[in-house]
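User: structure tokens for this one?
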Amino acid sequence: MSEKKKKTTIYVPRDKDKSHKLSVYLSEASYNTIKTLAAKSHRSLANVIREYVEKGLSIESYNSEFETIRKMIREEMQIVAQKDMERLIKIQAKSTKASAISMYVALQLLSEEYADEVAFKELLANASKQASAYMKQKEKSDDEYKAEAEQMMSDMQKITVKPKDYDE
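Assistant:
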């Protein structure tokens, strides 16, 4: 069974000069809700209905524009983030280059100290394992880094191989 509907005429002003009269059918429940809201706020049915029509239209307008607004915000954020990303990439490239230079200098110095190629390869393999383990660790506090540095100094004994003997 369908609910009994009452016909209500509402006045919806679009601007000061133009307004249009509409007739709408409301369900009994909607009519009673609006009637209750009007009584509680001491306003006419027409004023309550006008307010809700305007709110509904603004919500609908917001929903239709929401995706456009999100797209605009995303594009602006990408523009701002792009500059920082480029800067970070340049810093990372410099850091990588400095790290590679340090590694190759150390390798050169170590290779000059070790006559045995097998010992040098073992040294390099052990150092690589230690570095991989280090890179997998989580960030630490300053105190934890200090303790770790001391541990690394101790661990260096594990990767050190005796240098070649020089006849002097």
